[in-house]
């Protein structure tokens, strides 16, 4: 297992390019199952989650080719059984359910296991598929989905206890594109990644309207064709590096290949915390500079366009070393605070209670060996390490490699003093 050594105290400067979005790529890759023609997808980040998805597609019978960010997939002859060994590695593998049942009339996918960021049920995915005529059974740890007589459009409300579901909306959208008649999804997720998937599907010949709003209308078509698509920039990777700039760059850093309209909430909170954020006129680059007089603030995560839960850990790390008291509430994953125990080991003052972290900023963090517990928690520890006294050793780096493309190289490019140690336990 690799680990990352972060030698604290460096000043960041210069610029990097932000990669394509992991969370947009995953369902888009799965959507390639919907056609027997070739699809070409560009700017797929080279991270282990996209690699797992490509392995799943290969195991389902797809021909897959990948070279420098471009992926070609041809799903000419596929079968409906997603192998447990691969599916268990990544929860997002459930996105193959919708396309498989739409294309083949049946799918068998393992039930995803527990997840460190909290309880992650799939009831809403199943509700959506059932609403358009799929029959669902479980057998031997697998979900069996059948649509003997095909899928039929319907009206379905996908709101759950914690709001809309991103991958649940994606799954239903991918199944409904080949259903007979019209499907209307109410309380749909409107994250930019859902919009990117809808754009991809429309470019294949689907008829989807309203993606990006709470009501998506899908008129089923008989078949889809091949296409060529470029994935949107990763707003969470961009947001993570924006926090790095706020924490460790008095002179400022520039992030290229971003989308300003996807970074509104992170930008607003960095400004509120006293940092400087300026976008280029076209909104495709952002300059972030640490403020002279930073101050704590309050954050409550919410479905898009609210503050993203995937940025919660990184902001919590920033607040750990920001004067004043900050309050961070995660309404989407109230248990997603594993990073706080590790930050506390680095000298942070954080109390977590019932889905809310109260952070009393300290003047200095001190390095410690820490354990990455999930993707965004690991990113938070890297950020904290940039400002800690001494060398922070982040173990279980595979968590960060799931979703950040070449994070160590990008940090080095910005002048951070980090070092990947390969193969350590
Ligand atoms: N939920 C249900 N039932 C369901 C599905 C979800 O109750 O059937 C609940 C969840 O437990 C949660 C809320 O609904 O409380 C929202 O979960 P959602 O379904 O939207 O999460 P997801 O689609 O499984 C995606 C991202 C996550 C991100 C969430 C929320 C991908 C591959 N994953 O997951 O990203 O946190 O949306 O925005 O797109 C990450 O990148 O680190 C990550 C975890």
Tally of separate domains? 2
User: How helical, in percent, are the residues?
Assistant: 25-40%
Distance between the termini: 5 Å
Q: How many beta strands in the DSSP annotation?
A: 25
Q: If you consult CATH, what is the topology of the largest domain? A: UDP-n-acetylglucosamine1-carboxyvinyl-transferase, Chain
Low-pLDDT runs: none
Overall, the morphology is elongated
Quaternary state of the chains? single chain
* CATH architecture tag of the largest domain: Alpha-beta prism
Report the average pLDDT across residues: 95
State the CATH superfamily name of the largest domain.
Answer: Enolpyruvate transferase domain
Q: Let me know the largest β-sheet.
A: 4 strands, mixed
Can you tell me the CATH class of the largest domain? Answer: Alpha Beta
Strand residue percentage: 15-25%
Ions and ligands: uridine-diphosphate-2(N-acetylglucosaminyl) butyric acid
Number of helices: 14
Rg, nearest Å: 21 Å
**Secondary structural class:** alpha/beta
**Could you give the order of strands across the largest sheet?**
22-24-1-25
Describe what you observe in this structure.
The structure is a single chain. With 425 residues, the chain is α/β, with parallel strands linked by helices. The protein folds into 2 domains: 3-19 and 233-421, Enolpyruvate transferase domain (UDP-n-acetylglucosamine1-carboxyvinyl-transferase, Chain, Alpha-beta prism), CATH 3.65.10; 22-230, Enolpyruvate transferase domain (UDP-n-acetylglucosamine1-carboxyvinyl-transferase, Chain). The protein has 14 helices and 25 strands. The chain has helices at 22-31, 48-59, 84-87, 97-104, 123-131, 166-176, 192-203, 235-248, 264-272, 312-320, 338-345, 375-386, 398-401, 407-413, and strands at residues 3-7, 14-17, 38-42, 63-67, 70-74, 106-110, 135-139, 142-146, 155-157, 182-186, 207-209, 216-219, 227-230, 253-256, 276-279, 285-289, 298-300, 325-329, 349-353, 356-360, 365-366, 369-371, 388-389, 391-395, 417-421. The protein has a 4-stranded mixed β-sheet with strand order 22-24-1-25, covered by helices on one side. The protein has a 4-stranded mixed β-sheet with strand order 2-14-16-15, covered by helices on one side. Helix 11 (338-345) packs parallel to helix 12. The longest helix has 14 residues, at 235-248. The protein starts with a strand and ends with a strand. The model has no long low-confidence stretch (mean pLDDT 95). The structure holds uridine-diphosphate-2(N-acetylglucosaminyl) butyric acid. Uridine-diphosphate-2(N-acetylglucosaminyl) butyric acid (EPU) binds at residues 23, 26, 92, 119-125, 160-162, 165-168, 189, 193, 309-310, 332-333, 375-376, 403.
């Amino acid at each position: 297992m690799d680990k990352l050594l972060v030698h604290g105290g460096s000043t960041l400067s210069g610029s990097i390019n932000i990669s394509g979005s992991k969370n947009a790529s995953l369902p888009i890759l799965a959507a390639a199952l919907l056609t027997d023609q070739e699809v070409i997808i560009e700017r797929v980040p080279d991270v282990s989650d996209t690699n797992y998805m490509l392995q799943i597609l290969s195991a389902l019978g797809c021909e897959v080719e990948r070279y420098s960010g471009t992926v070609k997939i041809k799903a000419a002859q596929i079968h409906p059984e997603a192998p447990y060994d691969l599916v268990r590695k990544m929860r997002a593998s459930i996105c193959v359910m919708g396309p498989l049942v739409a294309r083949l009339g049946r799918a068998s996918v393992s039930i995803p296991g527990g997840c460190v960021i909290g309880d992650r049920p799939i009831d809403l995915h199943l509700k959506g598929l059932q609403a358009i005529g799929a029959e669902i059974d479980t057998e031997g740890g697998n979900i069996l989905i059948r649509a003997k007589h095909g899928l039929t459009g319907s009206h379905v409300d996908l709101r759950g206890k914690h709001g809309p579901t991103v991958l649940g909306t994606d799954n239903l959208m991918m199944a409904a594109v080949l259903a007979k008649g019209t499907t209307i999804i109410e309380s749909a997720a409107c994250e930019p990644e859902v919009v990117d998937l809808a754009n991809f599907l429309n470019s294949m010949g689907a008829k989807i309207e309203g993606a990006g709003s709470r009501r998506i209308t899908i008129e089923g078509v008989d078949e889809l064709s091949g296409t060529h698509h470029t994935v949107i920039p990763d707003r969470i990777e961009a947001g993570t590096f924006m926090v790095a700039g706020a924490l460790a760059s008095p002179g400022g850093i520039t992030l290229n290949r971003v989308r300003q309209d996807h970074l509104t909430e992170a930008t607003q909170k960095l400004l509120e915390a006293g940092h400087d954020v300026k976008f280029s006129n076209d909104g495709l680059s952002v300059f972030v500079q640490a403020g002279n007089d930073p101050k704590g603030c309050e954050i409550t995560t919410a479905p898009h366009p609210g503050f993203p839960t995937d940025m919660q850990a990184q902001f919590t790390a920033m607040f750990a070393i920001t004067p004043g008291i900050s309050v961070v509430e995660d309404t989407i994953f109230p248990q997603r605070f594993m990073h706080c125990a590790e930050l506390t080991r680095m000298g942070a003052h954080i109390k977590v209670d019932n889905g809310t972290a109260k952070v009393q900023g300290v003047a200095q963090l001190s390095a410690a060996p820490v354990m990455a517990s999930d993707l965004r928690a690991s990113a938070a520890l890297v950020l904290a390490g940039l400002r800690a006294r001494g060398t922070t050793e982040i173990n279980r780096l595979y968590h960060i490699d799931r979703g950040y493309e070449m994070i160590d190289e990008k940090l080095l490019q910005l002048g951070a003093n980090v070092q990947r140690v390969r193969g350590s336990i």
